[in-house]
Here is the input.
Amino acid sequence: MRRPLVMGNWKMHGTRASVRQLLQEITRAGEQMPADVAVCPAYVHLQQALQLCEGTSVSVGAQDCSHMAAGAFTGEVSAEMLLDLGCRWVILGHSERRQYHGESDDLVAAKLAAALQAGLQPVVCMGETREEREAGEAEYIVSRQLRGALQGQAGLKQVVVAYEPVWAIGTGLTASPEEAQDMHAFIRAQLGDIAGADPGTMRVLYGGSVKAANAAELFGQPDIDGALVGGASLDANEFRQIVDATGARR
Here is the structure.
């Protein structure tokens, strides 16, 4: 069975004080958790998070990386820099990057190539808007984003896919467990047609207003391998309950 992964995407939130308090409440040295657990703070808090998570079962990732290895790219952070710092993960192609920064499928693919080359484990996001779902285009959009990022890449077994319907991110709306499962099963079938991808072992996460109240039902679906958690990951108790809910997959 694929081991669940629960990852907190803290987005542009936090201070040094709040990061310390949050991670002290989430982590307990030597504790074994029922899932792989990771947090992705803002760049400025990565070093602090890595220090606080040392010796615990919580790993650390970044929310994005450059598609370039090095050079005169002011404000950018390379995958190699993140790995050198001690990061394990990097989130790529989040809908907020696509929406607010105009990131295309081609750019996400280039970032994925850079992350894999550096040795990071990428979490590649995809999902449709409400308008696209209502127009019956959800599967087309997700397939385009999935294939656009993964096709032709090497090392795909290190990739985690995250399905995040845009209409459910930060809105309080959540795809029903059945809707989420249907799309996850579709994604897994699509992975079977991509050279180098292994649909049986690659993890597919759900994201979009995941919270303690709906986590167990989502995780009980056969093709949902965990969650990419937004707002709820900023509440230690809520996040811990989501992690504990991965027991529904047993």
About this structure: The chain has one domain: 5-249. The radius of gyration is 17 Å. The mean pLDDT is 95. Residues 5-249 form a domain with the TIM Barrel fold (CATH 3.20.20.70).
